[in-house]
Structures are given as structure tokens and as C-alpha cells.
Design a protein that fits this description.
This is Diguanylate cyclase. 52% of the residues lie in helices and 18% in strands. With 284 residues, it is an alpha/beta fold. It binds ligand C2E and magnesium ion (3 copies). One magnesium ion binds next to strand 6.
Length: 284
């Protein structure tokens, strides 16, 4: 009987697993081809100073146009790019693209914006990673403080030694470091003190808890932790006026979210910045 069950389970699960593997490999092949054909895009989501509501910078976000129309979610394809190692090349391009756009914005008179770029673990394992960032900043004559690298807690925990070392090196040249999705990754508090950080990004899940008449304890705790550690805090996924107000009252410095702007292509970002400059208060 037991044997029969095992056989049944095997027959039931095996084709499904094979299908998933085939699908994954197909996606990776498409991603590689589309990247080679320059079909990937980097979009930008503005980041806002909560007290003044001025735009202080933007996060670079990858977009992969889907063959069926629309876009493949980065939540789907970034892990595949990481798994296949493609993220090293793609990440290098995102970095260059982001820095070139920042430079172009400088030329348009936006002198001190910051661009935040998401970094994956395989990039840290690439020995060319740290020199690549320094060379890019040098070549484009970008102030290192105007580049921010976003890393997650799980990335740090994956290989703390290499991450701490690389970040210390980059930090000494002036680059800023943020922890993304803070509060979702069970990071060790001891690494929080060892890492040369500038900013904690309060995960969207905790900003979502902000509702009229309720207290968002985790968001509050993260802002306080940031303050005690001497770090800036930025709220992710701010969609409502009351969330922006609540986070500002907690002492959170900055915000990013649909209330202010969705991620957009560079051309739209220029238009957004021009409009936002003349009217600094977003509509609800
Ligand atoms: P993330 O770095 O935490 O980026 C923030 C995500 O929240 C983005 O999703 C953004 O579009 C979304 N978002 C921003 N404001 C709001 C809001 O008000 N409401 C809601 N519901 N969502 C909001 P996106 O662009 O789909 O990216 C997902 C994730 O993919 C990113 O999360 C990041 O982990 C990864 N990713 C994107 N671009 C890159 C990249 O260039 N390199 C790497 N390594 N990862 C990337
Ligand atoms: Mg991010
Ligand atoms: Mg995030
Ligand atoms: Mg995320």
C-alpha cells in the first residue's frame, strides 16, 4: 500500500516539476535574448522629502516588456536573473543607465538628486562589482553621495562577510547604503550596527497598517530604531495622504509611493519633475 502511494505521488508530482523547470529555462532564455536586444527598460519612482514634499531622488526599477503585452513582474524575473547569473550583466547595465540618467538630470538643472539602485547577491560575489561602481562614478563625474545602493536583510545574512567588506569599501568612497523592505527579513541586529548604513526603507506592509484611529506599531518601531542608530528612514508604498501624515508625525524623513508617483520611464520623470517643481503638493 505504501509503495503504491509513493508511486502515485511520484507520477503525480514529477510532470509538474518538470513543467516548472521547462518554464523557468524558457523564461531565462527569453530574458537573455531580450536583454541582448536591449528590450529591457529602467523606470524611476520619485522619492519625496516628507516635510517639504520636494523630490529628493528616485529608485531605479527594472521593466521587462512581455511578449503578450504589459510587463513581466520583477518579482518573477529578478529571481530567475539571479538564479541564472544574468543579474550580474543586467545589474551592471541598470547601474550605468541610472547613473547616466542622473547625469542628464544634472544637466537639466536638477543638481542634487539621488538615484537608488537595487543590488542582488550575485553582484556582490562578482569581484568586479566594487571597482565597477567606483569607475562608473568617476567616469561620469557623479558625486558618490548621489548614488544609493539598496540591499535586503536576507542578502546580508546570506554572506555577511563579503557584503560588509564590499559595503565598507564603497561607503568610504561616499556611496549611500539603504536596507530595503526593512522588517521583513529577520536580520540580525548585530549586523545592523556593523553595516555602514545611511537609510532604512520601512517595508510597504508596515505602512499599510496605518489606518485612521489605529497605531502602526512596527512602522513606529522601525522609525525609532533608525533614529537611535542615526539613520534616515524612508516609507515605501505610501498610497494615502493619512499614511504620509502619520509617517511624518512619527519622524520618518522620506517617502515613496503611488500617492506621490508610480514608477515611470525617464521621459515621464522629466515631465513629472517639471510639474512637481511648480506645485509641490500632490493631490489625494
Ligand atoms: P523594491 O526594491 O522593494 O521596489 C519597490 C516596489 O514597490 C516596486 O515594485 C514598486 O513599483 C512598488 N511600489 C512602489 N510604490 C508602491 C505603492 O504605493 N503601492 C504598491 N502596491 N507598490 C508600490 P516592482 O517595480 O514590481 O519591483 C519589485 C521588486 O523587484 C523590487 O522591490 C526589487 O526587489 C526588484 N527589482 C526591481 N528592479 C530591480 C533591479 O534593477 N535589480 C534588482 N536586483 N532587483 C530589482
Ligand atoms: Mg528597492
Ligand atoms: Mg522595497
Ligand atoms: Mg522588495
Amino acid at each position: 500500500r505504501a509503495k503504491k502511494n509513493i508511486t502515485t505521488n511520484y507520477e503525480f508530482y514529477a510532470p509538474e516539476m518538470e513543467e516548472k523547470t521547462t518554464w523557468r529555462l524558457g523564461m531565462i532564455r527569453q530574458l537573455r535574448a531580450d536583454f541582448a536586444e536591449r528590450k529591457l527598460q529602467v523606470w524611476f519612482q520619485p522619492q519625496i522629502d516628507l516635510a517639504t514634499e520636494k523630490v529628493i531622488g528616485m529608485e531605479a526599477l527594472l521593466r521587462w516588456p512581455s511578449r503578450e503585452g504589459g510587463y513581466v513582474s520583477p518579482a518573477v524575473f529578478v529571481p530567475l536573473a539571479e538564479y541564472s547569473g544574468l543579474i550580474i550583466e543586467i545589474g551592471e547595465w541598470v547601474l550605468l543607465e541610472s547613473c547616466e540618467r542622473l547625469k542628464a538630470l544634472e544637466g537639466l538643472g536638477y543638481k542634487d538628486l539621488r538615484v537608488a539602485v537595487n543590488i542582488s547577491m550575485p553582484q556582490f560575489r562578482d569581484p568586479r562589482f566594487v571597482p565597477l561602481i567606483k569607475d562608473t562614478l568617476n567616469k561620469l563625474e557623479i558625486k558618490p553621495k548621489n548614488l544609493e545602493l539598496e540591499i535586503t536583510e536576507s542578502l546580508v545574512m546570506d554572506d555577511p562577510q563579503i557584503v560588509v567588506e564590499s559595503l565598507k569599501d564603497l561607503k568610504s568612497s561616499g556611496v549611500q547604503i539603504a536596507i530595503d523592505d526593512f522588517g521583513t527579513g529577520f536580520s540580525s541586529m548585530s549586523y545592523l550596527q556593523q553595516l555602514p548604513l545611511d537609510r532604512l526603507k520601512v517595508d510597504r506592509a508596515f505602512v499599510k497598517e496605518v489606518e485612521p484611529g489605529k497605531q502602526a506599531f512596527i512602522a513606529e518601531t522601525i522609525v525609532t530604531l533608525g533614529q537611535k542608530l542615526g539613520l534616515k528612514t524612508i516609507a515605501e508604498g505610501v498610497e494615502k495622504r493619512e499614511q504620509a501624515k502619520y509617517m511624518l508625525d512619527l519622524g520618518c524623513d522620506e517617502a515613496q509611493g503611488y500617492l506621490f508617483a508610480k514608477p515611470m520611464p525617464y521621459d515621464e520623470l522629466i515631465e513629472f519633475l517639471a510639474k512637481h517643481d511648480s506645485s509641490e503638493s500632490p493631490s489625494d
